[in-house]
């Protein structure tokens, strides 16, 4: 077996199609419903927010969707991304396991988010849209969309969750450097934001609130559309370029994963890595355990209810059947801002209900301990979000040390933490605390009765 550290693909090996898991599932996911009629939504219901090309991708049953040449041209700035073998971490753990990580921090935004930001900007520009609005948590998605809009001549307006806006000031500067405009959320610029501030002037915000603000503005202007960084089918579709590359890279070194681990907030990073491997599992060619890892403070898969709910706090979006903590749930301001979302992707929720993946929740101190361990061995400071996956990887590798099993573990290191150093400072100083979602929190969840 190979002892390589970096497994690379040539630009000529860049996948030219995205993969749609829906085509291979034993049953289709439940439909998205109109909140007024409770009937499945049609293209006209989504047209005020998305171009028809993305609406078609959202509902397609085709197994593959071709990646436009204009998108591939931008992808080539960083794709294919490297797959690393974590030799030094393995040695430090004393494990017989092999640990591989697909590193998405080489993108212009420093995360996996441009994989979908670029095509979303491209399709909107092709539809003669002038401006895109969006929300962002930790700021990685807002940064990615600002970058993507710059590539295709679009304006970009971002509402960032207040807790992360305050924690991560350099994200604001990076978004503005790429040409975007950014507001802390909740803001006084929208009815949705003002309503939250009227009720709680010190609200830390949430992704659900920020979505409401971005959707409200987009719906009011015919030349403006909304772009979402996770959750929806077309977003996860675009991210599958990660897993398709990883399949090719592991084949180069003759390894097959026994365990695949990814962090989950809305689900785009996890789905992007896992779905192509799940295709292979459903076809009987491999049989890995596929494990989603979420924060204990916002555990939609492990503690949430599988029910129809709004994707935003104000109830402006269609109803999606997903694992949810309630659309008005405001998570504690943990440092993994990208995972502070009340609901899980409907497609990942459906796959979880089918028993094709499993899920665990981790506290942030355990995750940052794993991030520090990884940084001191592998030399990359991970973003707070993938430290959740790293904590689960290390846990699995230590189990292998006890059992002697030489498992192959694969994870997605979905971004670097260079703009999250204040969070590491908080951990290193001993000031970080663990906040966990409680049974009382669930009792107060506000769920639509469908």
Automatic annotation (TrEMBL):
Residue list for modification N6-(pyridoxal phosphate)lysine: 113
Annotated metabolic or biological route of this protein: Amino-acid biosynthesis; L-tryptophan biosynthesis; L-tryptophan from chorismate: step 5/5
Domain Tryptophan synthase beta chain-like PALP: 77-415
Domain of life: Bacteria
Bilayer-spanning residue ranges: none
EC number: 4.2.1.20
Keyword list, A-Z: Amino-acid biosynthesis, Aromatic amino acid biosynthesis, Lyase, Pyridoxal phosphate, Tryptophan biosynthesis
MF (Gene Ontology): L-serine hydro-lyase (adding indole, L-tryptophan-forming) activity; pyridoxal phosphate binding; tryptophan synthase activity
SUPFAM superfamilies per the UniProt record, alphabetical: Tryptophan synthase beta subunit-like PLP-dependent enzymes (SSF53686)
Keyword presence, Lyase: yes
Cofactors demanded by this protein: pyridoxal 5'-phosphate
Function: The beta subunit is responsible for the synthesis of L-tryptophan from indole and L-serine.
Family under the similarity heading: Belongs to the TrpB family.
Subunit relationships: Tetramer of two alpha and two beta chains.
Protein known as: Tryptophan synthase beta chain
Originating organism: Virgisporangium ochraceum
Organism placement in taxonomy: Bacteria, Bacillati, Actinomycetota, Actinomycetes, Micromonosporales
């Amino acid at each position: 077996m190979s002892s390589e550290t970096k497994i690379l693909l040539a630009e000529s090996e860049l996948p030219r199609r995205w993969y749609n898991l829906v085509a291979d599932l034993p049953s289709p996911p439940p439909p998205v419903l109109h909140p007024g009629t409770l009937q499945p939504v049609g293209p006209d219901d989504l047209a005020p927010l998305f171009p028809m090309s993305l609406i078609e991708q959202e509902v397609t049953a085709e197994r593959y969707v071709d990646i436009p040449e204009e998108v591939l041209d931008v992808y080539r700035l960083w794709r294919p991304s490297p797959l690393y073998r974590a030799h030094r971490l393995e040695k430090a753990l004393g494990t017989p396991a092999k640990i591989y990580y697909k590193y998405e921090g080489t993108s212009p935004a420093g995360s996996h988010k441009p994989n979908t930001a670029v095509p979303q900007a491209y399709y909107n520009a092709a539809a003669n849209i002038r401006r895109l609005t969006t929300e962002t948590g930790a700021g990685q998605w807002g940064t990615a969309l600002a970058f993507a809009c710059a590539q295709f001549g679009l304006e970009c307006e971002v509402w960032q969750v207040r807790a992360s806006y305050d924690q991560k000031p350099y994200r604001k500067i990076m978004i503005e450097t790429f040409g975007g405009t950014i507001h802390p959320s909740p803001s006084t610029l929208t009815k949705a934001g003002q309503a939250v501030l009227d009720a709680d002037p010190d609200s830390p915000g949430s992704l659900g609130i920020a979505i409401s603000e971005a959707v409200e503005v987009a719906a009011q202007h015919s030349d403006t559309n909304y772009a979402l960084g996770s959750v929806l089918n077309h977003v996860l579709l675009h991210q599958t370029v990660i897993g398709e590359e990883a399949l090719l890279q592991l084949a180069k070194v003759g390894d097959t994963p026994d365990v695949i681990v990814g962090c989950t907030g809305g689900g785009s990073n996890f789905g992007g890595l896992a779905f192509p491997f799940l295709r292979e599992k459903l076809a009987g060619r491999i049989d890995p355990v596929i494990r989603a890892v979420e924060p204990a403070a916002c555990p939609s898969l492990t503690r949430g209810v599988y029910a129809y709910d709004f994707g935003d706090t104000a109830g402006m979006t269609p109803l999606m059947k997903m694992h949810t903590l309630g659309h008005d749930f405001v998570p504690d301001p943990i440092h993994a801002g990208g995972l502070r979302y009340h609901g899980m992707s409907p497609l990942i929720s459906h796959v979880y209900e089918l028993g094709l993946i499993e899920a665990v929740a981790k506290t942030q101190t355990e995750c940052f301990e794993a991030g520090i361990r990884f940084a001191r061995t592998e030399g990359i400071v991970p973003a707070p979000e993938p430290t959740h996956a790293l904590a689960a990887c290390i846990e699995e590798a230590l189990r292998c040390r006890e059992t002697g099993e030489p498992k192959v573990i694969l994870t997605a290191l979905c971004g670097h933490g260079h703009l999250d150093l204040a969070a590491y400072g908080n951990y290193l100083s001993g000031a970080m605390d663990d906040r966990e979602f409680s049974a009382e929190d669930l009792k107060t969840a506000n769920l639509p009765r469908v």
